[in-house]
């Protein structure tokens, strides 16, 4: 778990009622909208300065879309995204460009996110070139500083991405994200494409940078053990909605929502005896399509506790306990 102090409780990022719908069209010449993929469907949360909010859930539940919508890489269909008091959804292209140095992203695929025709030095310097205001000598010094900061040899700046390992390429992506001294970074599954032996190194690097630079993270991942290690709080998504959100220890020690309980029950335990004795909660069926989500609670088609009310009424997303939110009819 991150040991960053969160004494400053004022949210750096505030998301309210965020929706991201992608239209489904039919017809070649006279195309018309016949539906929508509800990738993100009305979620709300806050991220305080210096903390890490972990965002977990199955593939296709809307985690990456949430991160991109917050950064306005996708313009949200509805809802509010405030960064340090500024409403990002109301900004035009120029005003958004002025604030982009403070909000950056580390992508999942460290190879496809780096231009194979550019040297590492040029890749890391690119944000400074776009931003302007940096002399060539200043950029060269900054590139060397950033490479050293993420644990790479500055002398290798003339090499190309294919000459580095997957973990090293991810470090290059992190260095590029740090180039303009951001306050907030969306880490979009930054370890999922890496070997297990390298994942811990990257997570430890992110934690060290957070402590040294005062960074704030939205950490998107599948691996709950890594999320538990790095996150201050954790939000659990399912089919475009947040099912549960709580402090790290509260969520892992006493999960309230049946979906969260199922996810945590599948995390391997270090104790072989405890691992043999426990019984994972297996969910039936597959994740429904976000273009046609179930009525009522979107989880009711797979929930072991579902009753008639679950297919009729959407459960309120409410604060069940202090700092512990859940969306379930039967959570008290």
Question: Can you describe what's shown?
Answer:
It is globular, with a radius of gyration of 21 Å. Strand 4 and strand 5 form a beta hairpin. It has helices at about 65-70, 95-100, 120-130, 135-150, 165-180, 195-215, 225-230, 250-255, 260-265, 270-275; strands at about 10-25, 30-50, 50-55, 80-85, 85, 105, 185-190, 215-220, 235-240, 240-245, 315-320, 325. Helix content is about 30%, strand content about 25%. The strands form two sheets. Strands 6-7-8-3-9-10-12-11 form an eight-stranded mixed β-sheet, with helices on both faces. With about 325 residues, it is of the alpha/beta class.
Number of helices, counting only DSSP H or I runs of 4 residues or more: 10
Globular, elongated, flat, extended or rod-shaped: what is the shape?
globular
Structural class: alpha/beta
What fraction strand? 15-25%
How much helix, percentage-wise, in residues? 25-40%
Poorly predicted tracts of residues: 1-7
**Total beta strands:** 12
Distance between the termini: 27 Å
Largest sheet: 8 strands, mixed
**Rg from Cα:** 21 Å
* H-E string: EEEHEEHEHHHEHEHEEHHHEE
In order across it, which strands form the biggest sheet?
6-7-8-3-9-10-12-11
Mean of the pLDDT scores?
91
Provide the fold topology:
Blueprint (H helix, E strand, L loop, with lengths): L10 E16 L5 E17 L3 E5 L6 H8 L7 E6 L2 E2 L5 H7 L3 E4 L13 H12 L4 H14 L16 H13 L5 E5 L7 H18 L2 E5 L3 H7 L2 E6 L2 E7 H6 L4 H8 L6 H6 L39 E5 L2 E4 L5
Parallel strand pairs: 3-8, 3-9, 6-7, 7-8
Antiparallel strand pairs: 1-2, 1-4, 4-5, 9-10, 10-12, 11-12
């Amino acid at each position: 778990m991150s040991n960053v102090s969160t004494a400053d409780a004022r949210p750096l990022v505030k998301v309210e009622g965020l929706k991201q719908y992608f239209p489904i069209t039919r017809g070649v010449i006279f195309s018309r909208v016949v539906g929508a993929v509800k990738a993100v469907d009305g979620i709300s949360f806050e991220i305080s300065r210096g903390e890490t909010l972990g965002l977990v859930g199955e593939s296709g539940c809307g985690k990456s879309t949430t991160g991109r919508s917050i950064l306005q890489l996708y313009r949200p269909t509805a809802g509010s995204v405030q960064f340090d008091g500024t409403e990002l959804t109301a900004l035009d292209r120029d005003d958004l460009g002025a604030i982009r140095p403070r909000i950056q992203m580390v992508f999942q695929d460290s190879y496809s996110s780096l231009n194979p025709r550019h040297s590492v030095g040029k890749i890391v310097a690119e944000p400074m070139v776009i931003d302007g205001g940096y002399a060539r000598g200043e950029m060269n010094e900054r590139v060397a500083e950033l490479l050293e900061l993420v644990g790479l040899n500055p002398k290798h700046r003339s090499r190309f991405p294919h000459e580095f390992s997957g973990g090293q390429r991810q470090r290059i992506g992190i260095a590029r994200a740090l180039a303009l001294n951001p306050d907030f970074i969306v880490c979009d599954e930054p370890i999922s494409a890496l070997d297990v032996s390298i994942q811990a190194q990257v997570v430890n690097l992110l934690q060290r940078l957070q402590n040294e630079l005062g960074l704030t993270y939205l950490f998107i991942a599948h691996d709950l053990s890594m999320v538990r290690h790095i996150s201050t709080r954790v939000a659990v998504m399912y089919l475009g909605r947040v099912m549960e959100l709580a402090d790290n220890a509260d969520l892992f020690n006493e999960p309230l929502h049946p979906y969260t309980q199922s996810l945590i029950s599948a995390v391997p335990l270090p104790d072989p005896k405890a691992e043999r004795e426990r019984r994972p909660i297996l969910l039936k069926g597959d994740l429904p399509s976000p273009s046609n989500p179930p009525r009522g609670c979107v989880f009711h088609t797979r929930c072991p506790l579902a009753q008639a009310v679950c297919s009729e009424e959407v459960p309120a997303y409410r604060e069940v306990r202090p700092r512990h939110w859940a969306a379930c009819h039967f959570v008290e």
